[in-house]
Design goal:
about 350 residues; mainly alpha; two-stranded antiparallel ribbon; 2 strands; globular; ATII_rcpt
Length: about 350
């Protein structure tokens, strides 16, 4: 008996016997979204990487985090062409190893993106709210160690997507055999474990840290001498809302799928919940991909005021303005940190104004 035949027999009792390519409308829309994401995200993130590596000599903590985020997002964007082909053909043609590895890398990118955005938020919090500690806890050496630990955690958290996925035979609406790269959860608790882990550790907890950080930052900025000039509310709200809009639908579908596994197979509620997540998984996954190409667009609008003066170096000029740890004044550590915190507040104002001018 072949591997695909064994998968097909096993699939009779598999609660996920319908794949994400079982709905024509959802599949077509998902392919369209991913195609646009590929065309925008790959050159956008490559430009960010080039700007940082070729144009910036002294890289701040913020710049290092942006570089890691752009590398992760750019790599993911390069993989989208595979999923466009998968959704367009509605059959998996790349083999079982590629099925496991590609979805593992996508899941790892999800964790990497949100963890890096969270680190940016915490770094900004330390710089603005605790300026005297920024030189100690946010040095580039410490940040590099934190990044190494973060990537190790990312690889570990993404393991379920490597374990619980394979290629198997399925039937389309015309009863024609096709190959699908789909989850292979054989027990309901496997579904609950994987998707609850993704949502809690990859969305709820980091998102709570991000919101808390920016609330504390706003409270601190309103107490500084730049109080009348601070308009950070709009920029911070845009960052938080944009991230939530792209990722919330994906994690809602995760929770719907988890909830469905608590009901009996013959329950009408289970059938309704299964229909919802099966028909929506492709679109919500494609929307989540958009978050990886949104940052270059945001940076472009934020740095629009530099384009005329700096040309293709405008992105580097924008990132240089975010530097918090490249102090050049020969003052005491505490005084230097305080100046950098005020510089961060001023930089935030300039960025907000640039975003408004760009829009």
């Amino acid at each position: 008996m072949s591997n695909f035949t064994r998968s097909k027999v096993t699939n009779i009792t598999n609660p996920e016997d319908d794949s994400i390519v079982s709905n024509d409308f959802s599949t077509s829309l998902g392919a369209l979204i991913l195609g646009l994401v590929f065309l925008l995200g790959v050159p956008g993130n490559l430009f960010i990487v080039w700007s940082i590596l070729a144009r910036i000599r002294r890289r701040s903590v913020t710049t290092l985090l942006i570089l890691n985020l752009a590398c992760a997002d750019g790599f993911l964007m390069a993989l989208t062409i595979v999923f466009v082909i998968y959704l367009a053909k509605q059959t998996w043609i790349f083999g079982d190893p590629m099925c496991k590895v590609l979805f593992y890398l996508c899941n790892a990118n999800m964790y990497a993106s949100i963890f890096l955005i969270t680190l940016m938020s915490v770094h900004r919090l330390v710089a603005v709210v605790f300026p005297k500690k920024v030189m100690v806890v946010a040095s580039r050496k410490i940040v590099r160690r934190v990044l190494v630990c973060m990537w190790v955690l990312v690889m570990l958290f993404a393991l379920p997507s490597l374990i619980f996925r394979d290629v198997r035979e399925d039937y389309d609406e015309r009863k024609k055999i096709r190959l699908v790269c789909a989850p292979n959860h054989t027990l309901p608790r496997h579904v609950r474990f994987q998707y609850a882990l993704e949502t809690v550790s990859g969305f709820i907890l980091p998102y709570a840290v991000i919101i808390t950080s920016y609330v504390l930052i706003l409270r601190r900025l309103r107490q500084t001498k730049f109080r009348r000039k601070v308009r950070s509310e709009n920029l911070i709200l845009a960052i938080v809302v944009t991230f939530g809009l792209f990722w919330l639908p994906y994690h809602v579908i995760n929770m719907i799928q988890v909830a469905a596994e608590w009901y009996d197979d013959n329950s009408p509620t289970k059938h309704k919940l299964d229909h919802i997540w099966k028909s929506s998984r492709a679109v919500t996954s494609a929307l989540a991909f958009i978050s990886s190409c949104a940052n270059p667009v945001l940076y472009t609008f934020a740095g629009k005021s530099y384009i005329k003066q700096n040309g293709f170096a405008f992105m580097a000029r924008l990132f240089e303005g975010t530097s918090l740890d490249s102090g050049v004044n020969k003052k005491s550590r505490s005084g230097q940190a305080e100046n950098m915190a005020l510089s961060e507040a001023n930089s935030t104002n300039n960025t907000v104004s640039a975003v408004k001018n760009g829009t």
